[in-house]
Specification:
The protein has 13 helices and 13 strands. By secondary structure, the protein is of the alpha/beta class. The strands form 2 sheets. The protein has a 7-stranded parallel sheet with strand order 3-2-1-4-5-7-6. Strands 9-8-10-13-12-11 form a 6-stranded mixed sheet. Helix 1 crosses helix 13 and helix 5 packs across helix 9.
């Protein structure tokens, strides 16, 4: 019988990007039967993916989900926490592939980033592990750029200072950012005139931030023309959860036997969907720059080493350029004045692609091939 794959949360932002990518890569090739689930519109019309899809099915129906061989969820952590345990308790033995963080750190789940941990994924499939979860966006994007250094065993510790896009907080937050920009842009046109006093313009902008009508329900503070140095909830040690994910998830993905310390500050900035990171790496030894650049550049087909010049940096190392692309540029690479074993770099990646949808899309390909007794090589 044909393998049945259920999709939940396909209308949301990550789910939409997932379907878009699957269409681009012709993943709906008739090799599996797709069923689309819904939390709000049972019986409605599914997306058009080039094959007849039956009416939408109830995403909370354990019997309907149980009929699937694979469930792919982009519906978020609350949904996973509610439905996944019920499905497993009902005896379902299928593959659960998820973009949300809920199951990431469970012992019987694998965080998937196949260009980095394909061997771990393949071993998991052999060992009968059934839960596969996409990683935190900043962690996945950092590893897509720098896995070559970890693979060589050169990294003693690392810090990442992040510049994270609105998309990481959700669609409502992206809209709110644009609404905030509009508010600022709607300042008195006379003040924008070249001959106007710049301090008057500045005071007007500050005034707009303080208006009760300034839209900040989602972010809780102005982001446009500003930033917010706090992402996710507080941890007891003073980190935010986003900062804690750096050490927890990176080490889990890499399967390290000895924990590599990773920490930093996670900051929300007024970018739409690309996360950037300024990284400091303490190397175990003084590795020459040409070897470092070669290790980074040769790790996978998406990473790009950007020359450390103003011209290349401005044209290649910016969210404005990387938006909507799978490439992960790494630039500003140099040894620091702290000493020859201190390396710094800056990297940018699309939060919705390698940061969310792409590892999930690829994991589905890997699982389908595994079920067919083959190994997926793209």
């Amino acid at each position: 019988a044909m393998v049945k794959v259920g999709f939940v949360g396909w209308r949301g932002m990550v789910g939409s990007v997932l379907l878009e990518r699957m269409m681009e890569e012709k993943d709906f090739d008739g090799s599996f039967e797709a069923t689309f689930f819904t939390t709000s519109n049972v019986g409605g019309q599914g997306p058009s993916v080039g094959q007849n899809s039956p009416p939408l099915v109830d995403a909370f129906s354990v019997p309907d989900l149980s009929a699937m061989d694979v469930v792919v969820s982009c519906q978020g952590g609350d949904y996973t926490n509610e439905v996944h345990p019920k499905l497993r308790q009902a005896g379902w033995k299928g593959y659960w592939i998820d973009a949300a963080s809920a199951l990431r750190m469970k012992d019987d789940a694998i965080i998937v980033l196949d260009p980095v941990n394909r061997a771990m994924i393949d071993k998991g499939l052999q060992d009968g592990i059934k839960d596969y979860v996409g990683g935190n966006c900043t962690v996945s994007l950092m590893l897509m750029g720098l896995a070559g250094l970890f693979e060589k065993g050169w990294v003693e510790w690392m810090t990442s200072m992040t510049y994270q896009a609105a998309s990481g907080a959700g669609a409502k937050n992206m809209r709110e950012l644009v609404l905030q920009m509009e508010k600022l842009g709607a300042v008195d046109p006379a003040l924008k005139n070249d001959r106007a006093n710049i301090l008057d313009l500045d005071r007007a902008i500050t005034g707009i931030y303080q208006e009760d009508s300034f839209p900040k329900e989602n972010f809780g503070a102005p982001l446009a023309g500003a930033l917010i140095p706090w992402i996710d909830k507080a941890m007891e040690n003073g980190q935010t959860k986003e900062e804690w994910k750096g050490i927890a998830e990176t080490n889990k993905i890499l399967g390290t036997s000895q924990t590599i310390p990773i920490d930093g500050q996670c900051v929300r900035i007024a970018a739409m969907r690309c996360h950037s990171q300024a990284i400091t790496i303490k190397l175990k030894q003084d590795v020459p720059m040409d070897q470092i650049e070669a290790a980074i550049a040769s790790h996978n087909e998406w990473v790009r080493v950007v020359p450390n010049t103003k011209e290349s940096t401005l044209s290649e190392l910016s969210p404005a350029v990387v938006n909507g692309k799978l490439i992960v540029p790494v630039g500003r690479l140099r040894k620091m004045t702290l000493g020859p074993e201190y390396l710094t770099c800056f990297t940018v990646g699309d939060q919705l692609l390698w940061g969310a949808a792409e590892p999930v899309r690829r994991m589905l390909k890997i699982v389908l091939c595994h079920m067919d007794g083959k190994q997926w090589k793209q």
